[in-house]
Amino acid sequence: MMLTLSEKECIALIKKGECFHAEVESGAFIIKIDEYAPIICAAIHNGQRLRSELEKSFLLSDEEQFYEEDPYTDELISSFPIQIIGNDSRFEYDLNRAKALSTYFKTAWDKQVWDKPLTPKQRVKSHNKHQSFYNVLEAIIAVIEKQFNNAIVFDIHAYNYKTLEKNTPTFNIGSEQIDVERWGRVVSLFEKQLNRIVLPNLNVRAATDEVLQGRGYLITHINAHFDNTLVIPTEVKKIFMDESSGELYPLVLEELKAGFKNAISETAAFFVRRYGKRKKTQKADILSSTISPEVLALDKKLFALCKSVETLNFINPINLIAQRSKFFKQRNHNSPSFNYRQLNIDPYKFRENLYNLPVSDIYDADIQQLYRHVIDNLASKIDLLTTIGTDDFVYNSLKYYGEPSLSDIANARFILHLNDDEQDEVLLTADDAIEYFRHQAKEWKLHCKIEKSGKLVAKAMVNNEKALLLINKEASFTQKELHAYAYHELGIHMLTTINSKQHPLKVFSLGLTGNTHAQEGLALYSEYRSGSLTIKRLKTIALRVIAVQYMLEHGDFVKTYNTLMNEFELDKEFAFTLTTRVYRGGGFTKDYLYLKGFRDILALAKEGPIDNLLVGKVGLLDFNIVSEVVERGMIARPKSLFDLASQPSGDSVLDFVVNSIK
């Protein structure tokens, strides 16, 4: 909650090391401290506000005023633990000029600003607010220097560029008042980090002293009062808006915020390692470890809205057994007519409530982006669910899950050409499986329920909402299959279900964007790492890819079933299940993701640890921010039941096959 505090109240809190968020001196500026860290971010020209007594004599139009301000610069620093943001217009008093020169007599930038000069009394009011800002800023830096030895201030501005004839940089660092001999490596690193920012449909270039040289008062003032604080004046080209009309380009700003967060935090971490007390500081250490009230509030609303939206609860046919029996009695001539559970959600109200969630209230750029991804993903999921059993379902399945690429199909074909020499084994019943899984769950200390079901297409499935493992009552398993399913269903799906319920953020239980792809890939990877993955199992996964391909090509259950039977000489029950999996709902493309996910998890595991995928239903799109959230201590670090590090299985043939999947 934002407070309203006086300058003295702010300084008192700062000296006590208290965290707070407040408007100061009648709202002249905002100070936000989530955590005391050696990094301070300032957006001193962000505001456009004028005192009411000055508005009558102000001559500039809204467009003219906005043109010379630095709007949205507060957004660029919104992810950081200490922020100081100017709310008042620079035309009333300019925080980047010395106090005596901060108020414009009559003109500024060759434009007449006031119809008559400000009175001495009016100027004193403005100068007092200028002084108040610097008093609070000094208090913050004094505490930070005492606690951390050094501090770094990112002084963020925006500049107009359309009237400039030369090709100007996207980001300009002003170094004229920086002690380059002392701080030069930090400045150079910041420039490199800015150059790494990627923006939609824009070329990005960072430079130093190319447009402005950093001659503003904020750096002058800090240099005069503090010996161990580096200020980096930074100008951002107004490519995130139309500088003339003020129209915002939201997609550019969103990417710019995320890029700035990374560039500033990486630079600050380097600064602390080089000059501070914490020599092992990483990017995550610069950012707050506290989950903001805005994130918690949004997460709670999102979970309440979406906790029952589970695709497999609705897509498994409720008349599966009867339709399978009828299909075989009719000698495979007529497609099954499946029935499904009724959806107990009003899709229109759901979408309305979903997009009314206050995502823009989240300050952290990456966390905000993560929730935007989830909301868009859930909107697509409700489109999928509302069209179950209709001709539109397959379109929505393609939209939500995608379709197999040529590479996916080539991988599947490669696997299907392999020979598997597995001997026939004793088949165990669903009751045997339940006993085995209950024993394994107890050994792994997984508190979950395990039951039989007659409504499953698959042999086993985890109900995420209930932490329940369902076993198909008609399924049979070999001993090795049971071992594989234990690692797949319990070791990954159930573990991530249970882990997700331990966090203060319930979004990990709902599922991030692409979580099906990551979950199924990770589950297969766990089979591989546990030594229970077989060529036969891989061929089943490959057949699912081909089944999806044929479903999209044929659009006819019987034709796909017969093609699979004839081409691959399948058992009729297995072929029916395979075909049903891809035709349920009206054309379900999910099954190709198992092989694709396995390939992608294999590649990710070779790059580094993947344990953070176990925090919940995580997708690869947001894996980096999930790892950051873990490193920041916002959610608990997950514990794996077994080693997920990439290494050979010991089966040279299987390892060759797995490494050949591209």
What integer value in Å does the Rg equal? 30 Å
| Share in β-strands | 5-15%
Structural class: alpha/beta
Main sheet attributes: strand count, strand direction, barrel closure? 9 strands, mixed
| Order of strands, widest sheet | 1-2-3-5-4-8-11-9-10
The beta-strand count equals 14
Report the end-to-end length measured between terminal Cα atoms: 51 Å
Write down the overall geometry: elongated
Number of domains: 2
**So how many helices?**
26
The average pLDDT score comes to 93
Low-confidence stretches: none
Helix content bin: 40-55%
Features:
single chain; three-stranded mixed sheet; Aminopeptidase; nine-stranded mixed sheet; elongated; 2 domains; alpha/beta; 662 residues
Structure described in brief:
The protein is 48% helix and 10% strand. The chain is α/β, with parallel strands linked by helices and 662 residues long.
Q: Could you describe the 3D structure shown?
A:
- This protein has 26 helices and 14 strands.
- With 662 residues, the protein is an alpha/beta fold.
- The protein has 2 domains: 3-278, Zn-dependent exopeptidases (Aminopeptidase); 294-659, no CATH class.
- The chain has a 9-stranded mixed beta sheet with strand order 1-2-3-5-4-8-11-9-10, with helices on both faces.
- Helix 18 packs across helix 20 (515-529).
